[in-house]
Amino acid sequence: MPAAILRSCGVKTNAIVSEPRRVAAIGLAERVASELGDEVGGLVGYQVRLQSKPPRPPCGTVLYCTSGILLRRLQSNPGLNGCSHVIIDEAHERDVNTDITLLLLKRALDINPELKVVIMSATLDVGVFKR
């Protein structure tokens, strides 16, 4: 999904993808960068606690991070200004960080109506997220 968004929206893309685990964030950043014919730290990067290899702007970028990193970004930048897309992956693996992040993303949409939020899961119970 993030690679498709990057290809579709091009230089206007500044996407953040939240993964529940560090290993997933780093591994997916490496895989997507490879699929795009790039290295991590180019179009695609990652940020996890104590380890970071951010993407290089100004062209479109995708940053993979853990839910805790995204939560801290939302606390310091409530509208996620400068961000075009937020993707919450593995949303069925709910934890406190993800639940608070989803609440803050709802507020971020009020501040920044241009922000696009995608919630992904293979086994998501939609009813839980409607409430």
Automatic annotation (TrEMBL):
Q: Which PROSITE patterns match?
A: DEAH_ATP_HELICASE, HELICASE_ATP_BIND_1
Q: Where is the signal peptide?
A: none
Example GO CC term: the record gives:
cytoplasm
GO MF annotations for this entry? ATP binding; DNA helicase activity; G-quadruplex RNA binding; hydrolase activity; RNA helicase activity
**Residue ranges that the Swiss-Prot or TrEMBL entry lists as coiled coil:** none
Give a yes or no for keyword Nucleotide-binding in this entry. Answer: yes
Record domain Helicase ATP-binding: where: 1-131
Q: Which Gene3D superfamilies match?
A: P-loop containing nucleotide triphosphate hydrolases
CDD domains xrefs: DEXHc_RHA-like
Sorted alphabetically, which keywords does the UniProt record give?
ATP-binding, Helicase, Hydrolase, Nucleotide-binding
Name of the protein this chain belongs to? Helicase ATP-binding domain-containing protein
